Amino acid sequence: MKHSQHRATLGGKLSAVLVAAGSSVGLGNIWRFPYVAGDNGGGAFLVIYILCVLLLGLPLMVAEFSVGRATHRNAVGAYRALDRRWSFLGYNGVVAAFLILGFYFVVSGWTAEYMVHSLTGELARYSTAEEYKSIFDNFIRNPWRPVLYTSLFVLATHFVIALGVQKGIERSAKVLMPLLFVILIALSIHSLLMPHGGDGLRFFFRPDFSKVTPSTVLVALGQAFFSLSIGIGTMVTYASYFKPDTNLRHTALNVTILDTLVAVLAGVVIFPAVFSVGIAPESGPSLVFITLPSIFNGMPWSMVWSSVFFLLLVVAALTSTISLHEVITAYVHEEWHLSRRAAAWATTAATAVLAAAASLSLGVLGRWTVAGMNLFDSLDYLTANILLPAGGFFTCVFVGWRLDRRILRAQITNDGTLRFRIYGLFIFLLRYVCPAVLLLIFLDNLGVF
Ligand code: TRP
After folding, report:
1. Does residue 224 have its Cβ closer than 6 Å to ligand 1?
2. What is the CA radius of gyration of the chain?
3. Are residues 95 and 328 in contact, defined by beta-carbon separation less than 8 angstroms?
4. What would the pLDDT profile of 263-295 be if each residue is shown by its tens digit?
5. Does residue 232 line the site of ligand 1, with CB under 6 A?
6. Kindly report the CA angle at 292 between 286 and 297, in degrees rounded to 5?
7. Cα distance between residue 434 and residue 395, in whole Å
8. 104 HSE (CA, 13 A, CB side)
9. Looking at residue 449, what is its pLDDT?
10. What is the DSSP secondary structure assignment for residue 289, as one 8-state letter?
11. Would the CA dihedral through 420, 424, 426, 430 be positive or negative?
């Protein structure tokens, strides 16, 4: 396949890993992973999660990378170039990216608000978990403030995107990703030194398989896909900017390791702290926004710790919203033949409207429901439970069964210059294991089991 000359490419070897890891590492790792692990028994969940990441997530990421770099196109253009009938897979990705942004921007806005309130000392004015719960509930229902912070977050994402692939995405990932690691390591050391921190570590690392049910496996799988950003063409789009000498397997392996490391580090930050203060690890999605401020409050220099922690969430969320925005921007730019600037603005305007509506659906617009859920919840449900597993399923079917084997081999081995000893295993996972397991998640979500 010809490489289009006018298209941007990413710089060195590290950049491919950094931008892809920037996409993967996000609220999914730091906010969602700990509460899902807490809900599902801790240690045993961690073991299953890691198996899902290695056996299913990793091959799918290599598959998406191959499709993106083979075609050098946006998600829709990429599948269309390989087989017209499969362009629906690209559309599924663009639509899913748009819908995910609808609620992801809202949660990102909350992290920005909490960072600002940590810096101003506002958060430190309260002390009990009940107080934090009521300020959180009041905040997300307020008609103005969350919309304002969400809009600021949308604009921040826009300006990185508008700078272009190389200046915007690559440079910000280079600064943001290492910063994230430094902050997480500092916080995890702090957490480990808290009284009773060991109980939290035991909960997180000692598997208790008696708590495992079939649904634990399915939850772990869904979390793995969401966390790795696979199934909806994000990695197809990013890989379309990779250079011909980027080693796709190593990039996927590094991204997977980094993503998993961040999730595990987030667990090491959160569980010792949760046990130290005596909070139930099963506290659910509110764990970060309600419980952590009350934990920070009991710490020396609480303002510093909470500011640093919420800065970390903002950073992680931003590198992920950038990748979701880029899926849509690249599509609009290349398929609708708009300039990149106009494409970025169109994407920003449309996602801002959806995100504002999703934010308001938690308060004043709460009576508008889709299938019995408010807009915010329905966006989350539709993407995580339907579009994402469906996208993952069809991606393995396409790459495993339909894609010309020579194209796949050429991408993975860089035209035969790299050896791939476990190619047989890779194809086996992609053709049989991934589609079968994904079908199980899908059926489970439809309530068949
Ligand atoms: N992986 C990101 C996170 O963990 C979110 C994300 C970015 C995503 N791009 C995606 C999720 C594509 C699914 C598909 O927060």
Report:
1. no
2. 21
3. no
4. 999 999 888 888 877 777 887 667 778 767 866
5. yes
6. 140
7. 10
8. 31
9. 65
10. I
11. positive
CA distances from 399 to 83, 91, 92, 258, 405 (A): 11, 17, 16, 25, 9
* Ligand 1 mutation pick, 261, 324, 328, max ligand atoms within 8 A of CB: 324
CA distance 231 to 131: 39
CATH no. for 13-445: 1.10.4160
Domain residue ranges of the chain, discontinuous segments joined by +: 13-445
Please say if the pLDDT value at position 169 is more than 80: no
Report whether residue 323 contacts ligand 1, using a CB cutoff of 6 Å.
yes
For ligand 1, pick from 99, 104, 320 the residue to mutate: most ligand atoms within 8 Å of CB. 320
Query: Residues 239-247: what's their mean pLDDT?
Result: 92
**Rounded distance between C-alpha atoms, residue 231 and residue 248, angstroms:** 17
Q: Whose CA is nearest to atom 6 of ligand 1?
A: 229
DSSP-derived secondary structure letter, 3: P
pLDDT at 3: 43
Q: Which residue is closest in CA terms to ligand 1's atom 14?
A: 229
Task: Give 423-429's long-range contacts (Cβ < 8 A, gap of 24+).
Answer: 426/59, 426/62, 427/400, 429/55, 429/56, 429/59
